[in-house]
Design goal:
By secondary structure, the protein is mostly helical. It has one domain: MetI-like fold (Orthogonal Bundle), CATH 1.10.3720.10. The protein is built from 15 helices and 2 strands. The chain has a two-stranded antiparallel sheet. Strand 1 and strand 2 form a beta hairpin. The radius of gyration is 31 Å and the shape is flat.
Length: 322
């Protein structure tokens, strides 16, 4: 029998000693901890960017929120207004009309471009279709053109002697010819169609690039089951485009909410207030007829609405993904 076991009969079942436990902890300790390094040292590398972001974004946003509680013309002493600048959305008929027009523009700048972009992406992705690349390039062209150019082009198209009226006269519909952007009824739809044309290309390219990333095995599997093009679209293509579709929806809806350049360069919100938007009112109250507090309140509301829309879209997309 081992003499060590005879001298220490309880040794075999004894637990580790405190010294062994401490030594094991020292061995398992992560490298760098306790060796003189500071865990917050990496934040110093981010500090210049954080400071720049605070100066350029956070401080101006805070100043805008603060000014929204005052009546100020930009020159004289500001007076406290409380929430009156925000309740103006309910009292001011021009602001109410602007909000209604924004909802109208969401249809033309977001929903229609997404539907047309998805249809074009699907049709141009089928093999054997010639000229698909040229078609995509032409449709995407508005994205590489400045909004000012787009506004000038469509202003020329809608002029009384422009291509639209010339076409109507050629086909014998002279009675329908009009100055489209000067018409109280048709100015808003005319700008909406211009916005659809401008946003159409972005949606199509986003969908085309996402469709090319879908594994071909999925299409082959549903084709083996005898699926046709329609079932293939709803079974494979559409479910795999939910993520890109949420991104496109957020981008286009925010673009419709903050629409300014196209309206300002073509109608300036007219005739009357038939094409007025919140951004046009914001510009006029900030620079033309200074009501800085009211303009700041409009900007704050637009920012909050944009954030809310993005959060809702993200939540809905995440829920469908689960």
């Amino acid at each position: 029998m081992n003499p060590t076991l005879i001298r220490n009969p309880g040794r075999r079942n004894a637990g580790p000693t405190p010294a062994a436990v401490a030594q094991g902890r020292r061995r398992r300790r992560r490298p760098g901890v306790g060796s003189g390094r500071r865990p917050w040292l990496g934040l110093l590398y981010l500090l210049p960017g954080i400071v720049l972001y605070a100066v350029v974004v956070i401080v101006p946003v805070g100043q805008g929120v603060w000014l929204s509680f005052f009546n100020w013309n930009g020159v004289t002493t500001a007076t406290w207004a409380g929430l009156s600048n925000y309740t103006g959305f309910l009292r001011d008929p021009a602001l109410r009309a602007a909000v209604e027009h924004t909802l109208y523009f969401i249809i033309f700048f977001s929903l229609l471009p997404i539907a047309l972009g998805l249809l074009s992406a699907v049709l141009s992705s089928y093999k054997g279709i010639r000229g698909a690349g040229i078609f995509r390039a032409v449709i995407f062209m508005p994205q590489v053109v400045t909004p000012a150019v787009i506004a000038v082009v469509w202003q020329r198209i809608y002029e009384p002697d422009g291509p639209v009226n010339d076409l109507l006269r050629v086909v014998g519909l002279d009675s329908l010819a009009r100055g489209w952007l000067g018409d109280f009824t048709w100015a808003l739809p005319a700008l909406g169609l211009a916005g659809t044309w401008a946003a159409f290309g972005l949606c199509m390219v986003m969908f085309v690039s996402s469709m090319q990333a879908i594994p071909q095995e999925l299409f082959e599997a549903v084709r083996v089951d005898g699926a046709g093009p329609v079932r293939e679209f709803f079974t494979v293509t559409l479910p795999n485009l939910r993520g890109p579709m949420s991104v496109v929806l957020a981008l286009t809806m925010i673009g419709a909410i903050r629409l300014f350049d196209l309206v300002w360069l073509t109608t300036k919100g007219g005739p009357g207030t038939s094409t007025i938007t919140p951004t046009v009112i914001l510009y006029e109250r900030a620079f033309a007829n200074p009501e800085v507090g009211s303009a700041a309140a409009i900007g704050v509301v637009m920012t909050l609405v944009s954030l809310l829309i993005v959060l809702v879209i993200v939540k809905v997309a995440e829920g469908k993904a689960e």
